[in-house]
């Protein structure tokens, strides 16, 4: 379903487990009321009116709270005349905005100094100097008095005049002051109108974040303890920002086209991450209905907790190997709480993105050791840098690629940047002396890449040996299977590695030629597609014949609907975000391997993804129906 505003009332999600049917419990009355409310909303813009948007369910959960607009676009400059008697209050608004801006920049400066370095922090000293520039401040005050226009217009005009001046200067350093001025001007304007800018999100109280889009580095820099939920206009279900939200159990809805335009800061928002719904100013009946949903979800959560210590196995006692996808020691700890056998995927780019720069070998080593130690003897699968696609690092990836997901990313980038790659390989090898580590290469599309990657690994090992540094000489090497070519030559790749891990997020996009973050075509992103099922069968068969283990670590691994299919097709282990593991175990206990295999036989006869989805869903619903009401 594509996103956007719909003239419908809020449906009640029927199932506790992701079934997409809706019931309309209060019938036509609410329907007509909903229409009435929405039509009126357009005319009067009454801030209390309920407006409902439908998008894609990206991370499960229902939350509500005040909205926080996280903006990327330029600020809209309000324009109006001010009476002479109001000039003083306009100047006071300016002084107040200056104070707020000053303290925000000081706060950013402190944070950057703490998390990065004094060098980066000093960028903000230049911003502070602009704010203290007497000539500029006087110009704004004079402009208010002279033009009789509101302060926003005057700030905009004066700062533009200064920017033009700096832009024309020969001296490069002085020309750069223009960029500082632009930043300051935007921040001042946002403070004047009460909005907050992207990248400066210091939430004082828990809020629902509303944005046109979120990049992985935006998500990495957010204070998750204050983040109730996320609602974005764009984005697909497997965008990296969404994966990070899911890993932190933050409910999210994406693909809500036009939503951020409708939301004002402080509007009360409800996010339903189970069914992909976002509601501005939900009315009492909506809150009541969602209250009931929450109670039912809570019942299920309690049940999952009660059964958490039961073994991971099917009804007929076939053991299930569950691993966790984890990017921080906290996520590793959550994985352990949920009984994971090891860490199946540690995306190292998360560290690069958090720092928004390339960490040194030592810095990486420290981070990897933290993860290895947090895993307490369980193995950690460390994947080498997968930058590019939707994961861009300032100054590192190609910014202007026509097809970034098919471009200069992951192993392609590393093989062309030997110093960076060797730094990372040495850091990973050094960490392997602190606990069991497996090494994995992403985005492999041919044997040549894995052979070259192994040559780099050999060099890194030799360099460490020369220095007498300890590491695991027999470290396991694996490759991600996430390109169609890797599926086709899986048998050749198997000869080069110890294990496979199937990255279905990418495999689906490349196999079906559907960009995983483009919500215009999100309806075509179908992991149930027969082409995906056939590819999985082929990969698992190669794993069996070549005697190497195969994990699935893409998002379908955490979806219980897929569990019987993956087991029936013969997967060895599944790696999913820690919060999803309990539900996988819970569902595994509700079917036998015989049933899973006959489900696979049935779906392999079906030609359309929708038919497969229906069969998968009813297999699931039949086994949890006792819990849904
Ligand atoms: C995948 O593609 O399924 C995968 C796990 O890698 P990422 O989501 O980081 O691209
Ligand atoms: Mg991938």
Describe the structure.
This protein is α/β, with parallel strands linked by helices. The chain folds into 3 domains: 43-70 and 199-297, Phosphohistidine domain (Glucose Oxidase, domain 1); 84-193, PtsI, HPr-binding domain (Enzyme I, Chain A, domain 2, Orthogonal Bundle), CATH 1.10.274.10; 312-389 and 399-628, Phosphoenolpyruvate-binding domains (TIM Barrel, Alpha-Beta Barrel), CATH 3.20.20. It is built from 25 helices and 20 strands. Strands 1, 4, 5, 6, 7, 8, 9, 10, 11 and 12 form a 10-stranded mixed β-sheet that branches. Strand 19, helix 22 and strand 20 (573-577) form a beta-alpha-beta unit. The longest helix has 29 residues, at 87-115. Residues 1-45 and 197-202 have low confidence and may be disordered. The site of phosphoenolpyruvate (PEP) has 10 residues, from strand 14 and helix 20.
């Amino acid at each position: 379903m594509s996103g956007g505003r719909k003239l419908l009332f809020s449906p009640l999600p029927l199932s506790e487990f992701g079934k997409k049917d809706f019931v309309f419990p209060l019938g036509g009355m609410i329907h007509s009321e909903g229409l009435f409310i929405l039509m009126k909303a357009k005319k009067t813009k009454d801030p209390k009116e309920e407006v409902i948007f439908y998008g894609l369910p990206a991370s499960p959960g229902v939350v509500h709270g005040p909205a926080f607009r996280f903006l990327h676009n330029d600020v809209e400059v309000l324009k109006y005349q001010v009476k002479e008697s109001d000039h003083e209050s306009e100047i006071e608004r300016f002084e107040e905005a200056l104070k707020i801006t000053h303290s925000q920049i000081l706060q950013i400066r402190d944070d950057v100094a703490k998390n990065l370095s004094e060098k980066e922090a000093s960028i903000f000293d230049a911003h502070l100097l602009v704010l203290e520039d007497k000539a500029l401040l006087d110009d704004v005050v004079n402009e208010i008095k002279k033009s009789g226009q509101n302060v926003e217009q005057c700030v905009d005009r004066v700062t533009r005049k200064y920017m033009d001046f700096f832009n024309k200067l020969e001296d490069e350093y002085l020309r750069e002051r223009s960029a500082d001025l632009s930043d300051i001007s935007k921040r001042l304007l946002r403070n004047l109108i009460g909005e907050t800018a992207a990248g400066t999100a210091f939430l004082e109280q828990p809020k629902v974040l509303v944005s046109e889009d979120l990049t992985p580095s935006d998500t990495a820099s957010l204070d998750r303890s204050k983040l109730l939920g996320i609602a974005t206009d764009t984005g697909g279900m497997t965008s990296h920002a969404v994966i990070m939200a899911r890993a932190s159990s933050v409910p999210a809805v994406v693909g809500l086209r036009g939503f951020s335009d409708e939301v004002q800061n402080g509007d009360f928002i409800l996010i339903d991450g189970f069914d992909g719904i976002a509601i501005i100013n939900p009315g009492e009946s909506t809150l009541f209905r969602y209250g009931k949903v929450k109670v039912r979800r809570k019942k299920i959560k309690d049940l999952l907790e009660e059964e958490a210590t039961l073994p991971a196995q099917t009804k007929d006692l076939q053991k299930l190997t569950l691993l966790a996808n984890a990017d921080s020691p906290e996520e590793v700890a959550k994985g352990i709480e949920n009984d994971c056998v090891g860490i199946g995927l540690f995306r190292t780019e998360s560290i690069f993105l958090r720092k928004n720069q390339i960490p040194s070998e030592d810095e990486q080593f420290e981070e990897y050791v933290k993860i290895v130690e947090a895993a307490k003897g369980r193995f950690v699968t460390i994947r080498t840098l997968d930058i590019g696609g939707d994961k861009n690092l300032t100054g590192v990836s190609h910014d202007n690629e026509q097809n970034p997901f098919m471009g200069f990313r992951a192993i392609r980038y590393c093989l062309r940047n030997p110093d960076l790659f060797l730094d990372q390989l040495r850091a990973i090898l050094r960490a392997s002396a602190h606990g069991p580590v497996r090494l994995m290469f992403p985005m492999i599309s041919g044997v040549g890449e894995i052979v070259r990657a192994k040559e780099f690994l050999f060099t890194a090992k030799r360099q460490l040996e020369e220095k007498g540094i300890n590491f695991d000489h027999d470290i396991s090497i694996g490759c991600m299977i996430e390109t169609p070519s890797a599926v086709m030559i899986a048998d050749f790749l198997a000869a080069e590695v110890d294990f496979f891990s199937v990255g279905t997020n990418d495999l689906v996009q490349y196999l079906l030629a559907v960009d995983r973050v483009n919500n215009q075509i999100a309806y075509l992103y179908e992991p149930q597609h027969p082409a995906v099922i056939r590819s999985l069968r082929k990969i698992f068969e190669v794993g069996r014949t070549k005697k190497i283990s195969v994990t699935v670590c893409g998002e379908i691994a955490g979806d219980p609907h897929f569990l019987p299919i993956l087991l029936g097709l013969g997967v060895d282990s599944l790696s999913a975000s820690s919060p999803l593991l309990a539900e996988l175990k819970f569902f595994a206990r509700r079917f036998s391997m015989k049933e899973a295999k006959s489900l696979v036989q049935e779906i392999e006869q079906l030609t359309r993804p929708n038919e497969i989805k229906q069969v998968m869903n009813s297999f699931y619903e039949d086994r949890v129906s006792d819990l849904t009401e």
